[in-house]
Amino acid sequence: MSGRRTIVPIGDTAKKFGRTTASGKGSGVVVTNGTQSGSSAPRKPSGGTSPAKQASGGASAQPYDTDTAAGRGALRRRYAEDGDPLVAARDYTTGGGYSGAVRWDGESVTIGGVPIEPEYVIDGTAYVPRSEADTAIDEMEERNGIIGAEGVRDMWDERYGGLRDDVLYDVIGREAFSYDPEDDPVYDAYRRMYRREADDALMRVLNENNTSITGASGAVLSEALADRDLYLDRMTDMIPELAADAYSRYEGETERLLDTLDAASEIGGEYYDRLYQSDRDAYSDLIEAGEREREERQRIAENNRNAQNDSYDNALAQQELERGEVDLRYYGDMAEQELRRAVLENDISEHEYYQSLIESAMDSAERRGFFIPGDEAALPWLAAYRSGGGYSLSPYAAAAQRELMLQLARQGMMGS
Predict the structure, then answer these.
(1) Where is the composition biased (Polar residues) (predicted)?
(2) Across-strand partners of 152?
(3) pLDDT digit string, tens, across residues 105-142
(4) Any idea where the domains of the chain sit in the sequence?
(5) pTM
């Protein structure tokens, strides 16, 4: 029998929930690393005023400088002395089983939607009084229908704990089996029956011999007493059988109690499992909701980043396009300038060539002292002289004419 019984329906299953309360349901007392904390702890030291806002020593005291390590250390010691140590909000809440319940908006930290103003933030970690974190977690649990392992056990105990304890007491408290026929009502009934039959047997022998117990002969009396003892012996022979029957009844009662305990354990266990699963479902819903919110925030942030990147890429592409257009105009202008320069240089070269012909013809005329018809190839204006009476110019006149022609050529006034 002992190998198939489940006496208590709760066990390791109840320990799966990380954050448990140390006192009754709804107490909000949290067991963390062997220490208790709860809503009974002071929310704020110094009469409800944060030490970060007010240091000890009166109204004129300066607040703690949380920008320095020394100031933060002094603040932590102050809270610890008042029994309400500062905790890292996210680490503390995650350690209690709520990994997705903490949010930070740049000014306050929220635990399960409950805002808490941190005493200070360092390296992205917000530090808050433990009592405020516990209160926020309790409010979150109550709002989301989460009772925790302790609450599940309390509800189970309220419904099935009394029945279990009563039956368990009856099983454990049963005395060891012993048999005393004097205390057995069945034996007493048999004893009365066999005594009547023994007395009847005695009287039957006496009546058959027409005598009484006082007047019977020794032989008759011996026969009557023998018949009487026969029935009394039968009564004694019944004791082992009655003892076995009594033990069977004892075992039957024990079996009945254990069956009752089994039934209570099974029903209570099913009730506990339903409560626990419902609590876990509520917890999972909370975590999933937090995860969906986190994913939505990430999606929005990713979309914003993508939009910013697209805007940057578009602006960069526009800049590249505009730079290309500027470069195209620049190189087009440069090409046009090069073409104009080439044309100008060609004009200059051509002008210099013709100028050299003019200078050569003039030099020759000056040396000779007059012009000849061959000079007209370089000096077209000589034709006018020829039509007016020939080329009879003195060398000095030719030199003066040469200077005049050179000036006209420089000014672009000489005809072709």
Answers:
(1) 20-40, 47-65
(2) none
(3) 777 788 878 889 899 998 888 899 999 999 988 888 88
(4) 27-146, 160-307, 369-416
(5) 0.37
